[in-house]
């Protein structure tokens, strides 16, 4: 990532999506925000009140657009700095003209991806877990993802982690007090056993959340369903039916699909990624071999494999299949009722599709489970596992000093969640995942 020119720069960028639209919001943040408002909108409007203004080119005073203008003085703004928004007409030429006008203001430059949010973090307006919640909210594709992201943006994880961190610090303080009273045996012992109790309760609370961790992470990423089976089993036909669009090539030629094709679907709010793969068989050219290797790789990582087994040409289930549903396809091609498998479908006519969807939903729900997970990223999980380890080790120490040191380490590990410690490595990665203007 490029070095930032200077922390004092005033940055600007369109905050709404690209392309032609009714309105485009251009956001400005930094010490030159007032200057930019005066130069382009003619005045600095009262705080947090929208005003209709003609925007003008600061060089020749030519009108650029009619816009709604709003000013958020720092520190009570999104970034903590002076912030303004121009709600201009969303045409490409209008946007270009206003951005060009902003470039002419001394100290103003276009923002990098995530730079507004980075400033909000650095100015203490959001903690790291809230920044992640914001990133997830912008990326949320389904209702469940939206809810989880919003909870995190509102501090669901950050507040809890802060409470845990304070408990660990309180425990460390108790142990240090016990050291001070080391000469008076009873007092020291009582304090130490109180610390022991605090550490134990804390560890139980964190472990309870860790049990939900995979669920939170999987909800962010989506439930992974892999379609597998012999060539011509109807995998691509089923993918197209589930995606409700023509994503993959379907043909009567065995070995049509070679690459892995992924489609993200919304199953009543649950995010599901459906993966189509190359048909598995003995023979094949080099490309087909590679396709089958990829198919096997996908099957190994799947949350659920749908093994497709054509009614008119039975394909036995592989031995080492993990969680799966045995789906008999092309049931319209046989006269006798199908006696094998978990479910029977004919995707082109829609037969059995409602039942298949219900089974998929059941499987996804049992993975995602009930209730709300706080932990949504591997980063959180690793920090909390480390904290639990320090809490456990501390309780087993014979020396009070070592017990206290482990509590300090536990607090430090928990502190990584909100970005109080060791954040630099996370920051660049996280902010670069944002769009420009956020
Ligand atoms: N009659 C009938 N034909 C089907 C059904 N499902 C798929 N087909 C046909 O079966 C053929 C193979 O379907 P595909 O979806 O390409 O099969 P595939 O499993 O993706 O095949 P590969 O990509 O080659 O591994 C196509 O001609 C489909 O139209 C079905 O339920 N009934
Ligand atoms: K085919
Ligand atoms: Mg196919």
From TrEMBL:
EC class: hydrolase
A Gene Ontology biological process in which this protein takes part is: tRNA methylation
Which organism encodes this protein?
Saliniramus fredricksonii
The UniProt record gives the binding positions of Mg(2+) as 236, 257
Official protein name in the record: tRNA modification GTPase MnmE
Q: Supply the SUPFAM superfamilies for this chain.
A: P-loop containing nucleoside triphosphate hydrolases, TrmE connector domain
Extract the signal peptide range.
none
Primary gene name:
trmE
Family from the record: Belongs to the TRAFAC class TrmE-Era-EngA-EngB-Septin-like GTPase superfamily. TrmE GTPase family.
Give the Pfam families listed for this entry: MMR_HSR1, MnmE_helical, TrmE_N
State the EC number(s).
3.6.-.-
So where does GTP get bound? 232-237, 251-257, 276-279
Where it mainly occurs, coarsely classed, is: cytoplasm
Protein's UniProt keywords contain Transferase: no
**Entry cofactors:** K(+)
**Residue ranges of every copy of the TrmE-type G domain listed in the record:** 222-365
């Amino acid at each position: 990532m490029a070095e930032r020119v200077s922390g004092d720069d005033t940055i600007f960028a369109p905050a709404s999506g690209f392309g032609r639209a009714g309105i485009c919001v251009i956001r400005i943040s930094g010490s030159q925000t007032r200057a930019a408002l005066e130069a382009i909108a003619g005045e600095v409007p009262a705080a947090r009140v929208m005003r209709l203004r003609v925007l003008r080119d600061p060089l020749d005073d030519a009108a650029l657009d009619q816009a709604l203008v709003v000013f958020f003085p720092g520190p009570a703004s999104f970034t903590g700095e002076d912030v303004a928004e121009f709600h201009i007409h969303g045409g490409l030429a209008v946007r270009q003209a206003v951005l060009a006008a902003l470039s002419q203001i001394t100290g103003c430059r276009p923002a990098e991806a995530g730079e507004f949010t980075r400033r909000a973090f650095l100015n203490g307006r959001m903690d790291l877990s809230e920044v992640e919640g914001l990133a997830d909210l912008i990326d949320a594709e389904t209702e469940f993802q939206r809810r989880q992201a919003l909870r995190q943006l509102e501090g669901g994880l950050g507040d809890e982690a802060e409470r845990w961190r304070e408990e660990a610090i309180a425990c460390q303080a108790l142990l240090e007090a016990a050291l001070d009273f080391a000469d008076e045996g009873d007092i020291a012992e009582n304090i130490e056993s109180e610390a022991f109790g605090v550490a134990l309760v804390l560890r139980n609370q964190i472990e309870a959340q860790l049990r939900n961790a995979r669920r939170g992470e999987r909800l962010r990423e989506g439930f992974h369903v892999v379609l597998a089976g012999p060539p011509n089993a109807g995998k691509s036909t089923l993918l197209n039916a589930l995606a409700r669009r023509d994503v993959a090539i379907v043909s009567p030629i065995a070995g049509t699909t070679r690459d892995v094709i992924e489609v993200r679907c919304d199953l009543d709010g649950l995010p599901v990624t459906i993966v189509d793969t190359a048909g598995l068989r003995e023979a094949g050219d080099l490309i087909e071999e590679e396709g089958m290797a990829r198919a096997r790789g996908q099957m190994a990582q799947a949350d659920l494999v749908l093994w497709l087994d054509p009614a008119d040409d039975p394909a036995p289930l592989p031995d080492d299949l993990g969680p799966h549903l045995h789906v008999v396809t092309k049931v319209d091609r046989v006269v006798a009722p199908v006696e094998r498998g978990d479910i029977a479908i004919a995707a082109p006519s829609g037969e059995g599709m409602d039942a298949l969807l219900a089974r998929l939903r059941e499987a996804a729900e049992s993975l995602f489970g009930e209730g709300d997970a706080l932990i949504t990223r591997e980063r959180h999980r690793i920090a909390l596992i480390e904290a639990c380890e320090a809490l456990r080790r501390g309780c087993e120490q014979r020396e009070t000093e070592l017990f206290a040191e482990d509590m300090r380490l536990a607090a430090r590990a928990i502190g990584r969640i909100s970005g109080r410690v060791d954040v630099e490595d996370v920051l660049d990665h996280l902010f670069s995942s944002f769009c420009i203007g956020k």
